[in-house]
Each structure stands twice: as C-alpha cells, then as structure tokens.
## 1
Amino acid sequence: MLSTQVENFIKYLEGSSQYSENTTIAYRNDLMQFVNFLASYKSWKDLDVAKVQSYVTELQEQGYASSTVARKVAAIKTFLGYLHQQNETKEDISRQIVTPKVRRQAQTLLSEEEVTNLLAIPEQSDSPKNLRNRVLLNLLYSTDLRITELVELKLKDYDGKRIKFTNDNGVTREFELNDATRRHLERYLKDGRPSLDKNLGSDALFLNHRGSALSRQGLWLIIKECAQRAGLSTAVTPHILRRSSDAHV
C-alpha cells in the first residue's frame, strides 16, 4: 500500500523538530491526495517523473493556485527524497521534478496577526453559530477544502480525526485536521449543532439557523461579517485564506 510509506514518513516528520504540526498535517493531506491520484499503482518504485508532472498538470487544470501547487510538489519531492534514503526506491527522481513557478498575484495575503484576529472573532462567545463558525474559518485556513465542498460535507464524512469524502468528479478527498480544528469541530458537534438542528433530519455537517444545510451564500456572509468585525481592510475570500496559509507554513 502506497499509504503505508506515507504514514511512516509522517511519523518521521513528527519526530523531527524541523517541522511544525501544521506543516506535518499539510504534508500528509497533500501526499494522500497524490496517493489517490495513483490509485492503480502498487509500489512507489513504479513512479516516474512523467507521472508526477501529469499530476501537476491536473492540479493546474482543476484551478489550484500556483502557490498551492508549488506546496504540493514540495511535499512530494521531500517524500520521494525520504523514500530513496530509506532504500525504498532505486533512483531519487525528486531532483528531476520541476517545481512550478508561483505566479505573482494582485491580491494581498493576510498576515499571521490578521488571521489570528479573524479566527478570534467567533471565540467571543459560545453561541451555537459561533461554535460552527470557528470550525468553518479554521477549515478554510488549514485545508484545501473549497467552499462548495465545505457546505456539502455530511456528518459521515468526519471520523473523529479526519474529513474524507468523494467529490462530484469521483475523486476521494481526505484531510487530517490539526488539533485546534478538531477540538473546535468536536465542540460544535456536542454543543452547537444540536441547538441548530430543528429535527429536520438533515445529515449536513454544517447547519444554518433554520436547521437546514448551510448554503454557499450563507458561508460567504459569515466570512464577510467576521472579516469586518476583525477590522480587516483586505477583502477576505476562501482563496485568500488558503494562500495565506500556504505562506505561513
């Protein structure tokens, strides 16, 4: 199983003081996405540079920001270098993989202080809505979840440690959550969602005040309101949050 070596690599990173928890989780999520792309492969020894480059092309065609693609490629190259050091591959192809250039964007990234201020807004009270909003903002910042994917998440997609689902294109997406996000999600499921649930039988993970699934528009309004309350001059979008996270890793 390709994922076995990924998990061994993550344990190696966790034992190193060079990598933060957020970096380790980002690496795991990026590599598991790559594993899903290599569904027909049985061994990392079968991987070649052409296959990696085809994966990069697919990411670009799916609309990922150049900074996100570059981060995912960096994770793959680090992992492949590790495999070669462990004698799991005959050749270190990581040196042959071209990291795509990061295009300069007109949009302004958020500083770490601005992100901290934004994430602190739902912390001001423990209302059901704030418990929900803490999770939403943390997920947008710490994962590659897109806004449509986020509002379409089901209760069954969270297993107590990670979020895993199959999107409309038939691609399995998996995200291990950092401690803070997981803690917020557990609190929301225990104390927030039951209060929002109006016995409508919705299996949506995130509910609005009427007890039905949160909509895209509803999530956009939450982001806009929290950004305004945090006093941010930069227009905050899920894309900006993801790119800011890439810069902070």
## 2
Amino acid sequence: MAFLGNFQRVLEFIRENSAHPLVQNAFVRSEISPSLVTDYETFQFINPLTKQKLSEMHMGGALLPLILAGGYVSKIFTSPGPVYNVKGERWEHYRFYKALEAAGFIDGDVAVNTFSYHGSPAGDMAEEACEKCGCAVYPLGPADSGKGAETILAVDANAFIGTKTYLFKCLEKLEGRGRLEKAFLMAEKLTEDDKAVLFAEHGIKAFQAYGTAEAGLIAYETAGGTGMKADTDALFIEILDADGKPAGEGETGEVVVTFMNGTTPFIRLATGDLSFTENGRLAGVFGRTDSSVKFKGVFVHFWVLEKLCAECRVSGRLDISNTPDGADSMCLSVSGGDTDMIRSSFYKAFGLRLPEIKVDDTISETAVQDTRKQLNRR
C-alpha cells in the first residue's frame, strides 16, 4: 500500500486530541465511533474531507469559531472556496523552513519573496521559513516583472522565492545582471529541463516543494534525490485510487493527508492532487482529481466557477493553456451576460484578473479545460 509515515503515531495523535472539534468532525461526518479505529484497516472508515466539503463547512459559519476555540491561532488567511486557513505555532505549523534548508538557503542570504502577502498564506509561509534559516527577505509580493527585476538588483538579492513563470520573466528583464544563484519555487511544476536551463543559462540552482494552505509543507526536493521527501514528522500521507482504496507503490492516486497538528488536526484531508510514491518518496504532482486547476499559484475550483456562472446566469468554459513560450494562459468563454460583471465576479471569487473573456453562444455547460503540457507525467 502506498502511504508515507508512521501510522501508530496517527492513532496516538487521535487519542490525545480526541476533544478537538476537527478530530470530532472526522468521526461525525463518517458516522463512526472513535473507538472503532484501532488499525489502518479501520482508519479507512473515516471519510476523506474534500476541499469542497471544507468550503461548505466554512460557508455555514460554524467551523472557524470551532478552530479558533480549539487551539492557539496567530493568523487567519483565506483561499478560494472560500476556505479559511489558520496558522498556529510559528515555523512548526507550516514548516517550509525544511524545504528552504534543503534548497541551500542559509544565514546571510538575501531573498526576494514574490508570493502574495494579502489574505493568502503563501507569502507568510515563505517569509517565516527564511527567518528560520537566517535569510533576509524583501517582501515584494505580486508585481510586474520589471519591478521584480529592479528589486532584485536594488537589494542585491542572491535568492528568489516564487513561481517558475515569474522567475523566467524577471530573468528576461535582468538580461544577465544581478547575482541570483538559488531559487525556491512552488505552485507550478518545475521540470528537470527547467532546472537545467536555469543552471546552464543563469547559474541558478532551483528546488521546488509541494504543500497546501491547510496542512503546510507536504514534500520537498533534496539535493541528489529523485522525487520529493515527505514531511512525515507532521503528516501521514496516503495515496488513494479512484475508489478511495489505497493505491500500490508506483500507482497514481489522490494525495490524502492527516495533519498531526494541535491547532488544525485534519484527519484524512483530500488534497485533490494526483501523485504516487516511489522508493519512500512522493513523486510530485501530476494533475487534479477533479476539474479544479491551479493558475499562478491560485486554485480555481470548478464548483466555485460553476456557482459564479449560475449567479451570472451564464454557462462558461475556462481554458488554461500554454503560450508559445511556455507561460500559462487563461481565457474564459461565456454564453452571454454582462462581461464586466462576470470579470468582477471572477476577481472577487479567485483574486485573479481575467486576461481574456469571450462571448460564445454555443457554450451550454460550464467546464474547465487544462491543456498545459507541464501536467504530463515526466
């Protein structure tokens, strides 16, 4: 069976945190008693918690107060759904410092952090990780590539944190200037070809990691290793097939995590991401179980798009593809309606500005199509 981590620790954690609202919810939603779960076979009686179900629980208004009452919370963030994400203990809640250490971030480095600081947790995740590593941070957040390049030069940064696409755009503007030598990238797949180009043409060693707003760091690349090292200190990770059964070694399935954290103890949280295990490591992320997609680090959930289109009384098809130079591109085609209102509603729902919106009266059903080549298994 494809799982990573120590299952006995899961049983101990459930017993020790049985009074926490999120632990209790796992058994209530599954209609079973905690006393029934004594081994991995009975653990599977707990229904995985999907992002859609988690969003519905938040929209009901009862979940966040329960989480706040369940343990120490230092910050509250939000992600599309909406889902409210909370942060507990500094450093150990998100744990991304482990990924930065593996990527070679050390005391004395100067990093430009291009992840958002507004409402979403990505910027904070990276900043506190740098702090733990002794690395100075310029909190740039999202900006045009010209501003990014200007900042990299102005603060004499040797490290970059953000997405692959934005890094390449900044490098175009830099035109060989600056002293960037390392990069920590998330939210987009980084291929071995990408790494080779970054090192051969720009002298940058790039590493990537995989995580979620709910559970923090899940897995990260290490020097000389294939795939990603799972953070089993905090997580128990399962790979489940389409029927919800444990997949075998090397078989692709959904990543389901149990986050052994006193603030947000998620039991069998279904990430919606597809992966497989190989030699005790997580292979990476190779797409989604549903029609949800990630664009520029932001999840565009199908059910949110469907609700948006219904409220605007249209059908819509969201097309995600690659431009000729390999960058991500997004276009929404709708059956009619007020395009200005739809554009505004889309931004409100996802925090993304639609670069293109078209009217196509032949569209009869809402759908998401993602044809980006980097989703292919490599």
## 3
Amino acid sequence: MKNAILFLLIVILAGCQQDNKYILNGSFDGPQNEEWIYMVKFPGNYNDRDSAKIENGKFVFTGIIDTPQVYYMHYQMDKIIGVNTFFLEPGTLNATINLDNWDLNSKVEGGKLNDEYNKFLAERLEKFLNSIFELQRKAANARKDRLKEINDSISMLWSADFNFSMNYIKNNSNSLAALHSFYMLYNGCTVDETSQILSQFHPSLHNTLLYKKILDENQERIERREKANSISLTNETKIVKSDFKGAPVFETIIKQNPNKVLYVDFWATWCGPCKQEFPSSKKLYEEIDTTKISMIYLCISSEEENWKQTIKLEGLKGQHFFIDDEVMKKLENDYNLKIPGIPRYIIIGKDGKIVNEDAPRPSSEETKKLLIQLSS
C-alpha cells in the first residue's frame, strides 16, 4: 500500500513538473560570432544567469518555472549588448534574434504574456514610435526654421504614446506584462499617481519582484519629498521664478547677472550622469569668486515638484531655473543651439555672448581655470 501511494506521488510530481516545463527555442536572423547567449531574471543580477550554446545559429533553453517571470536576454558576456525583455512562462517559446537592430527586431513569441506584450509594442510602434524615430532622424539635420516644428511633433507623439501606454496598463491590471510596462514608465508619474496605480494591480501580482521594486522605489521618492519639505534653502541657493515669456532665456538671466561670467548647467531630475556631477559642482561653487561668476542651473524635461526637491536634497548653491518644453525649444531656436543630451554645460562671457556651447564638466580640472580666466 505504501509503495502504491509513493508511486502515485511520484507520478503527480512528475506531471506537475511537465506542466511547469519551458522550452525556449532560439535562432539568429543574420550572422552571429559568439558561442553563447544568456538570459537573466529581473531585476538583472548578471552574476546569476543561464546560458545556452549557439550551434549553427540555433540555441535552446530548458527548465522548470512555477510562475511567469520577467527575464532579460543578452548577447556577449562581457559587453552585455542587446538586452531584450521577455516573459519566461511554461510551454514552448520561440526567440528570434537580430543583431542589426536587437531592440526592434528581436523578440520572444509564445505564451499568453509574450503575445500580449508583443501586440502592445507593435501597436506603439505603428501608432507612435516609428514616426518619432523618423522625426528624430530628420531633426538631426534639420534647418533652424524647421527644427521647432519637428520638435513640437515629437513632443506631441511622445505625450500620445505615454497616454496610450498608461491606458493599456490601467486596463490590464491583472497582467505581469502591464506591470512591467508601468515599471518602465512610472517615473513619468507623480508619487501619488504611482501609489494609486499600484493599488489597482491585482493582488496576485503584489508578491512579484517587479511590484515590490516599484513599491520600494516609490517609497524612496515619498521619503525624499518629506525630507525635502523639511529643508530650508540657504541665501546662496535661489529658485528663480521666471516664465521667460517674450525675452530670450539667456537675455533674461544675463540682465539678472550683469557683467558676470555664467556657467550654465542643463540637467534633469531623472538624469543619473547629471547628478554624478553635483558634488563637483558644489566644490566648484566654493572655489570661484561668486561676485564675478554665477552658476546657473537650467532644469529641463522634469516635474517641477521633483526639481525643487532635488535642489534641496543636493544642497546646490547657485541660481535655479525651471525650463518647460516650450521654453526649451524657444531657447534652442533663439540661440541656434542643439542640445541632444544632458548633462550639457555652456559658458557665457561678461559681454553676454556664448563663449563655449559645449563646455567641460564641473569635474574637469579645466573648468575652474577657464571660468577664472574669463572673469579676470
């Protein structure tokens, strides 16, 4: 009798394992020159990843998975190029890898979540992203009189894409694919909006690593807000209210800083490399003669609430201006500037003319020397 029960348990367990088994078949569309391909579980501990050998352009991952999980697939162990998101779930999955354009042309198909996510991405591409990419290519070589029109169109499309994505997320609150999409977008929401949307996800998702990571990161944002509200600004930190209506941006700032050299920092609250320069910026402020040199911070593409919090938390001395998208486009047009990425630094001389529109960073030894030389 005992042997019969034991045999029955073994059969049941074996059946459960078969139900939870996955097979991920993959192939390369185009040439490949590596022996291995890798997949790693969210949030991406690359020291703990699975590998599959590539033979004749084919590879296979197999294993057991109890519940669907977010995974990343990548190529080349050292460089970690071509990171692609997919959902590892029981059943047979098929991956097609294209190294020429991994992000857009590589995908994993099969399974409810992958099919749902691929459909969502395909709709975004068709409705918004393909047009955005094409306009960005045009903007890179556009004449000044066309640049504003192109940038306006790009901004409108990004806004429409965000709204489309948020509608998908809210209408699929029981989906891990929708939760992952929210993880990619939630920094565009306020902390209160993020908390509200998180609360609407199905309880079955609350124990996932993805949900917990968004929850923890949003809690950090809440704590940052509370801490910022308790900090008072010093006299050397000035948040300047100006809508820049009519007059060019730099002209307005120059009038407030007559006969001074201006070191202008373009940054955003979400920009990691921008924030990495802040300790050097604070050190630079203490080493310059602020009666001759002004440090100007122009925050772009950010939430105004987050802007004020960051200024307080970082203790950035200098003059701070909040630049919305409309003002930023006007600034680029007025001064024939192209700022493709941040952080970006500009130096304006005592005569009010731009001396260097791609100045060295605060961490560079050349920056202080250049500012002192121009101010003498």
## 4
Amino acid sequence: GSITGVVTDKATNDKIPFANVLLIPENNTAFVNGTVSDKDGNFYIDNLTFGNFNVVISFIGYKPDTIKNINIDKQNQQVNIGEIQLSAFTVALDEVVVKDWAKTVTTNLDLVTYRTQDFQTTKGGNAANVLNKLPSVSIDADGVISVRGTPDFMVYLNGKPTHMEPSTMLSQIRATNIESIDIITVPSAKYDAQGKGGIINITTKKTGGKGLSISASGLIGGAPWGNYTHQLSNYNMNDNRFGGGLNFIYSKNKLSLYGGLNFNEKNVNGTRSGFASLLQENGSYYHMVPNGVRPEWSENYTANVAMDYQLNNKSIISASYFYGNSAKGRSALYNYHTFCGDV
C-alpha cells in the first residue's frame, strides 16, 4: 500500500518543503518507513504492508503533528491523508525592537541569494568579480571559479541552464546588469549524480512598467601615467581599463522585450624577477637572473535579447538568445643575466 499527503504552515498556508515524515505501527514505537516532503510540501510512502499506522510529521521551528490510526488493507491500499498543517513554535519576549534593513543575503535551506547592488566594490567589474566576494566561492589566479573547492558546478542564467564554460560565461556578464545571484552549495541528489559541486543561478535586471526604457553605462580606469613602450620589444605597456553597455526594455500589455550590448577590456602590467642556479660537472655554478615584465589583457563582448509573453497569471512564454566572445592573453618580456661562479 501507500500513503500520500501535503505539509503546510497553519498560519500562512505556505507549503513546507523537506519536512520529516515518519511511519510507525500503531501499537509499536519501532520506525518502519519514512521520507521528506518535496519542494511543494508533498510526500509519498509506498511498498507498505497491511496494518494500522501512525504518521509523525515534524520540521525545525514547528510543533510535530501525529496522524493516528491510518488503516491499510486490501480494500484501502492507497491512502491520501490530505493536508497536514504544522503550527510554528512561539516564544514570549518582554520587549522586541525591530529595525528594518534591506536584505543583502536571503537564506532558504540550501539556497543563498545575494543582492549584487549591495556589493559596491564590484560595480565596474563582471559576474566573476561579484562571485569572488561571496562565501564558498573562490577564483584562482588563472580565473578558474570554484564552488566549495571544486570547479565542477552548473551555471544558470535567469533560471535556465547554460552550456558555456562557467568561467567564460561569468566573465562576460557585467556586474551592473545583475539583479541577484543564487548559490546552492548543497545540490540535491540528481546534481550529485552528475558530479556537480554546486549551482549558480544569475538573475539579470528587468524593470517593470510600460513603454521603452534605455540605459547606458560606461567604465574607464587604470593608470595612464604609467603607460610606456617597452624598449627591446616595442610592446605598448598600459594599465588601461574601459567598458560600456547599452540595454533596453520594452513593455506593452502582456509582451516584454529586453536585450543589450556590453563590452569590457582590461590591461594589467606585471613584473617578474628571480634567480636560478645550475650545478655544472666541474663543480662551479651557472647562474641565471631573469628580470622583466609580464603584461596581461582580456576582452569580453556580449549581446543578448529575450522575450516574455504572459498568457495568464500563472503562465509565461519566454525565449532568449545570448552571444558572448571572450579573449585573453599574456606576454613575457624578460632579460636574462647569466654568469658562472661559486654560490
């Protein structure tokens, strides 16, 4: 036989996901079977033998509830116990002072949502710069992005999976175009089976209202006073950084169109020095002293367009297209001073 039901909050009627559901024989305290409710609060227990059972439902912050004397027999093999409403625990306090602050972080079980507008230092960067400020996310010197120490994770854009390389995808989305970022550091079993270390969902900005809205942004920076031409290679050394974007949103009745063009270019000057020694057969040492510069550069260009059409209050048809191109490089311009001698 089987038992089904749904777990809700008694005060708000909201569904309660991941509630514990235990099945216990009516005249015994031994645990027989159990499960947890899904994201919509529904649960299902099957492969049950005939008999009388009690179902105990519990969740953190709520009072447990027990549904008693559920009979499963030949004539009543599939039992739906309907809606089980849990009441929240209440604690009486002498005095409570409430201060209202806009949430930077919203936590819901294994989902953490960050509002990117609160990260002021990343406004001139891209999605990777924002992620580098978040817990459980790290970016190494080569730009490889890891969640919980592993680079094997999934990237979603506006709730839809993408098939681009994650580090490339994140480098092509400007921080100013991001509304929020969801980090799922404990994926469900279906993601673990694919070896995924985490899930990142990036939600881009959309504005409400009717009519046409156009926004433009620009970025310029660096240290132009430090630019120079390398004497030996004639290479143009510079720290210039600039970018910009043009985005639009058009809304009328049930139709919404939005899209944009964005670009970002970054140059970074670097230096290198070192010392190496090689022991020769005659017992003397051959010394090498490298000294020079190692400039790096990167370019990112993106274009996106999307459409939403609201069929009714519960259904929306969406279509979107995203194109991005990313390039980066590094040069090494070294002078080597060599000489022989003892250490």
